[in-house]
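Blackboard transcription, Thursday session:
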Amino acid sequence: MTELAKKRPEFRNINALQDLPTYRLPPAGWVSILHRISGLLMFLLMPLIIWMFDNSISSEFSYAKFAAAFNVGLGFVPGWFMKLVALALIWAYLHHFIAGLRHLYMDMCHAVSKEFGKSSAIVTLSLSIGLTVVLGAKLFGIY
Amino acid sequence: MSVNYGSKRTVVGAGYGFRDWLAQRVTGALMALFTVVVLAQVILTSGPIGYEEWAGIFASQPMKFLTFAVIVALLWHVWVGVRDIWMDYIKPVGVRLALHVFSIVWLTGCAGWAVQVLWRL
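(Written on the board underneath:)
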């Protein structure tokens, strides 16, 4: 580390509790922070995802157990809560997937203008939330 | 220049950005491809999907090949992503180290479990 780098001033003018709730994030900023939150959520729930994969493909019997977890419940956890967790995972996957494609597109096409950043962020947010609503309605048996 | 190694070492980021950046994109693209392949088979299945149809999707050798590659890609992708989160928000070195260790154990354990499920099929 050079002496110059060491003397670099540090500005700590953001307080997480006071400033973040009132800070108006642009659409691209929302996509960015939600990309992290959705990724972290899937990381923490990874054992549940593999449990679902395990039970759904291992045998006829375990498949029935997998299906029952969402209809009847799993242990002390009621079925509707399992569905809610599944819905959170569906949103996380959709958001992470679409925002990831946005990243790939931006890298490949050098699409880094301010306008494209905003419009693609709005498309990402509306697509991921829209599809989550559609799949959530299916999950809870509305249609 | 002052001493910046040993106990005086300055803990910075991972320090090899390009490799991680590229790995993140390649593994992400592979998982996106996998998503499309699985989704296509679900949509193209005629009639209701029960155990036989669902398990059948993963049972063929090409799908086992792809799914294994995706599990490894996922392990790598999540390691890069989660480590970025810890490096950005967790400043105390000890806490960060503990979270890195937790992430490695969590991820290798999960990947092993997923592979075990896949190879049992």
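Lecturer's comment: Chain B has a mean pLDDT of 91.
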